[in-house]
Amino acid sequence: MGNSALKAHLETAQKTGVFQLTGKGLTEFPEDLQKLASNLRTIDLSNNKMEILPPLIGKFSFLKSLVLNNNKLTALPEELCKLKKLETLHLNGNHLRQLPAAFGQLSALKTLSLSGNQLRTVPTQLCGLRHLDVVDLSKNQIQNVPDTVGELQAIELNLNQNQISQISVQISHCPRLKVLRLEENCLELSMLPQSILSDSQISLLAVEGNLFEIKKLRELEGYDKYMERFTATKKKFA
């Protein structure tokens, strides 16, 4: 892509606060974007070939939305964690194995999508995020859900298409968790904490495609309590 095309995009972005450049084969984050560090509210560089998100991302202190789906990122810089206004972060379809240690400092974050990466566990850093609503960790390599998950503030947690065979009973203690998606994992029925049914806020539990028949789930103690929550929620949205 020529400099003139980039210049035109930058001029538009200066007026709109939105910089969108998708599917252009970019191998590097455009350094010229720094000039707009105080203007930009949204950056979308999806469907490119970027391997590195440079530390200068930390300069975009007014950024609310960062979309980098389908690139080749293997790591994220600690500087990303300086973005105190960031509400939406989409990183689907990259090669991420972990999150920066200070990720919990993204205090405004509401939506986080990390589908189709190489995460092996539910990152503990997520538990510090008080405004998190939706977390998508589907299509990773997660094998178990640790005790720390009990502190997660999210309303929806998507763990579909992982390799999960163990879930901490602490997941029942998530204060705001209403939707838990665990489809297509490696769960035996005995490994599904019954407290999810009998003693949690969860009103939508999706567990199709595991190592048990759904009708067996209905025989578990607490299933009727879960169905009460499920039905009440359905009525609310009907």
TrEMBL record:
Keywords assigned: Leucine-rich repeat, Repeat
GO cellular component: cytoplasm
InterPro entries reported in the protein's UniProt record: Leu-rich_rpt, Leu-rich_rpt_typical-subtyp, LRR_dom_sf, LRR_domain-containing
UniProt KW Cell wall biogenesis/degradation keyword: no
SMART domains associated with the record: LRR_BAC, LRR_TYP
PROSITE patterns named in the record: LRR
Any matching Pfam family: LRR_1
Domain of life, per lineage: Eukaryota
Record protein name field: Leucine-rich repeat-containing protein 57
Species whose genome carries this gene: Casuarius casuarius
Lineage: Eukaryota, Metazoa, Chordata, Craniata, Vertebrata
